Inverse folding.
């Protein structure tokens, strides 16, 4: 098989960055291969995807060193690269460009100047293959995340590429939709011979298909080997990118012995219903008790009502009926400053909500809002989260991992007793998941502290939660310990 | 109105009526307080503050009614446009003939709902961190909301970068464009343009003949022959819209099938 791509000592600097994002990276991609690219955030995975897709340096600018070849020619000279190489990115919301599914799929073909008859034929093929026929005339904003990502894949496939580059395509999808998406990729590779280059954190489902693994660390290609060899050697080298969830479920839960001793409830919901519209009920008569001193995970499919329940517990929205008690006190009786000192809430991608000019100001904002006197608290939190060196820097100038630490610190500094987190590990690699698991454990190590988090990341739930609440269509189906659930 | 009914757009039109209604209330209040030109007084407020009389005249009421009708008419036109116009067709047209404007349209149409959602999330985060948007005077309320704008700005900039990257990855600007859906003149287009132009012509003629004016203040102008003629013309135009709306409904029905 011939080489499709060849990278020779490639280095890259993003505009106005002094530190290289890639350093002396060399590898080749053969036709028909399925390559899994792994590495922590900021390790250079997405940069490689953009180089292979011809977006760097053309779209991003910056300085590219070394040589990149596509089918033996310099990639810069390849006029038909867009036709041959399709790219799917992480966030389906931001890739959808048209209002109707059919128009979304034909948009790329129109850009490439396909004849009309050819477009019609390809459109029908793609709709049939991806099982999108019933969505053909649907408005794109009415689609679920999984459907959107399939439509985007369809739009890319219709352009007729032989290579697919996918940058964490399932990070925003629920487990079921993610598995469906990955199974389509497997079919495209096995049945139609597509070359697939996949960057993915949901590694459980990828190893079976991947023929090669490229592992990046700090902009360098550290491992380039078969998937089997990578799995055999990774653990010994402290590389955490190997499947492990099944073992986690078999372990007895760490805190089960406490459950009988500690019957205090941090949160209790009594017959709580909530609705976004007058006609339908979104959450239906939720009765729930969340134990103090434990980590509770809320799981369920998209639209099950998990995030809505979390917002109710945070007091951000009011229930339509029923009562929510926080430490036996009705939530509506809390004054704003008192609530900040009792409940800490972080939404998805919390680092997006940092708005002050320095890290110090970001933390001070919470202190001021909650009427908490500083008295060494700032120093303590800066050191606890290891963000003291960035104290006077703009939060947006930090790496994603550092920004997450600042976001968590900005809530933690008010010393809340209950921490509510919405999808804290969405789209994160194992290293950053470990950070969150460690911080949650540290939080509940203080007597009386409780964590409730919403997640679709079953590995993370298995690794960090004591209790699991399973929701389905606005109803709590299971509320039990992790051990009981894994035994069941 | 008839067209909106034909196109089953009442639900959307209700939103526009809501906007027109609230603006009308604002107009009425401002007009009653500021405009005291009418001479046919129908109600006078008891004198509470010396030198500050509030009178409501027949002229003011009719003038406000006319303003409200104009407002509703304008908003109805926008509503009709939003129901009839397919955003993707506009996008395709602009992508071919005005690529930069198309890019702006894509970013605007996609980002407004995203920014709106981001603002709501940001509001939740700031409330959870102790921010209070309802406390204090107007200036303090605005100041408390400033961080929301900052977050929305950052978010929309990052979002637009990703959107344009996705468009670039799908070959935008690499080859001469073709179109899957061809634009052609439809019966509805011809009828719409003809009817619009003839209305414009009639209105123009009317204005040139001095029949488009009506004096409200200080007293209502008597209903002269020309005003009556204008009224008859209006009734004629409204009547002629009925068969047009019927044809339009058939055309739209056939094409959607």
């Amino acid at each position: 098989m011939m080489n499709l791509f060849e990278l020779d000592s490639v280095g890259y600097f993003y505009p106005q960055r002094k530190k290289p994002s890639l350093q002396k990276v060399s590898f080749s991609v053969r036709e028909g291969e399925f390559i899994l690219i792994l590495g922590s955030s900021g390790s250079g995975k997405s940069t490689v995807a953009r180089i292979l897709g011809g977006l760097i340096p053309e779209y991003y600018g910056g300085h590219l060193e070394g040589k990149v070849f596509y089918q033996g020619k310099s990639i810069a000279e390849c006029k038909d690269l867009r036709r041959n190489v399709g790219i799917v990115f992480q966030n389906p919301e931001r890739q959808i460009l048209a209002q109707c599914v059919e128009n979304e799929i034909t948009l790329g073909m129109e850009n490439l100047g396909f004849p009309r008859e050819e477009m019609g034929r390809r459109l029908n093929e793609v709709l049939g293959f991806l099982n999108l026929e019933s969505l053909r005339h649907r408005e794109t904003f009415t689609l679920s995340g999984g459907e959107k990502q399939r439509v985007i894949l369809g739009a890319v496939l219709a352009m007729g590429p032989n290579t697919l580059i996918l940058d964490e395509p399932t990070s925003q999808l629920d487990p079921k939709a993610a598995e469906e998406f990955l199974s389509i990729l497997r079919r495209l590779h096995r049945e139609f011979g597509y070359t697939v280059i996949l960057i993915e954190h949901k590694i459980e489902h990828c190893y079976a298909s991947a023929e090669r693994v490229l592992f990046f660390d700090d902009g360098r290609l550290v491992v380039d080997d078969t998937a089997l060899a990578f799995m055999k050697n990774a653990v010994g080298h402290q590389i955490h990118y190997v499947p492990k969830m099944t073992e986690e479920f078999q372990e007895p839960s760490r805190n089960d012995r406490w459950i009988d001793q500690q019957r205090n409830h941090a949160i209790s919901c009594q017959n709580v219903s909530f609705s976004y519209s007058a006609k339908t009920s979104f959450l239906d008569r939720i009765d729930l008790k969340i134990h103090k001193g434990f980590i509770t995970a809320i799981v369920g499919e998209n639209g099950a009502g998990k995030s809505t329940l979390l917002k109710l517990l945070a007091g951000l929205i009011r229930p339509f009926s029923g009562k929510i008690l926080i430490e036996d006190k009705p939530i509506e009786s809390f004054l704003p400053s008192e609530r900040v000192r009792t409940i800490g809430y972080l939404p998805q991608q919390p680092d997006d909500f940092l708005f002050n000019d320095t890290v110090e100001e970001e933390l001070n904002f919470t202190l001021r809002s909650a009427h908490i006197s500083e008295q060494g608290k700032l120093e303590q939190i800066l050191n606890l989260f290891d963000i003291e060196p960035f104290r006077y820097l703009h939060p947006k100038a930090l790496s994603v991992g550092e920004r997450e630490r600042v976001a968590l610190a900005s809530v933690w500094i008010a010393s809340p007793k209950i921490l509510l987190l919405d999808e804290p590990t969405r789209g994160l690699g194992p290293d950053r998941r470990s950070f969150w698991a460690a911080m949650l454990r540290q939080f509940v190590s203080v007597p009386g502290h409780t964590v409730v988090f919403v997640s679709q990341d079953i590995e993370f739930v298995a690794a960090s939660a004591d209790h699991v609440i399973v929701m389905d269509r606005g109803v709590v189906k299971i509320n039990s310990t992790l051990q009981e659930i894994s035994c069941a | 109105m008839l067209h909106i009914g034909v196109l089953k757009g009442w639900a959307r039109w209700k939103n526009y009526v809501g906007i027109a209604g609230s603006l009308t209330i604002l107009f009425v209040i401002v007009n009653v307080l500021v405009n005291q030109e009418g001479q046919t007084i129908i109600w006078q407020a008891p004198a509470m503050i010396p030198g500050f009389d509030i009178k409501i005249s027949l002229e003011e009421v009719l003038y406000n009614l006319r303003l409200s009708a104009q407002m509703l008419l304008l908003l109805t036109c926008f509503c009709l446009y939003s129901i009839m116009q397919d955003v993707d067709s506009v996008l395709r047209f602009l992508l071919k003939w005005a690529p930069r404007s198309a890019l702006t349209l894509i970013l605007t149409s996609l980002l407004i709902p995203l920014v709106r959602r981001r603002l709501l999330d940001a509001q939740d985060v700031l409330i959870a961190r102790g921010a209070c948007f309802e406390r204090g005077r107007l200036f303090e309320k605005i100041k408390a909301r400033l961080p929301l704008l900052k977050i929305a700005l950052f978010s929309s900039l990052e979002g637009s970068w990703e959107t344009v990257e996705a468009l670039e990855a799908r070959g935008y600007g690499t080859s001469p464009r073709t179109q899957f859906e061809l634009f052609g003149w439809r019966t509805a287009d011809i009828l719409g343009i003809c009817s619009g132009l003839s209305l414009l012509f009639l209105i123009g003629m009317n204005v040139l003949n001095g029949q488009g004016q009506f004096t409200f203040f200080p007293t209502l102008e008597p209903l002269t022959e020309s005003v009556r003629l204008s009224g008859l013309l209006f009734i004629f135009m409204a009547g002629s819209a009925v068969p047009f709306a019927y044809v339009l409904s058939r055309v739209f029905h056939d094409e959607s099938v």
Strands of chain B lie at 41-44, 55-57. The longest helix of chain B spans residues 138-169. The helical segments of chain B are 2-6, 10-34, 58-84, 87-97, 99-128, 138-169, 187-208, 225-256. The mean pLDDT of chain B is 77.
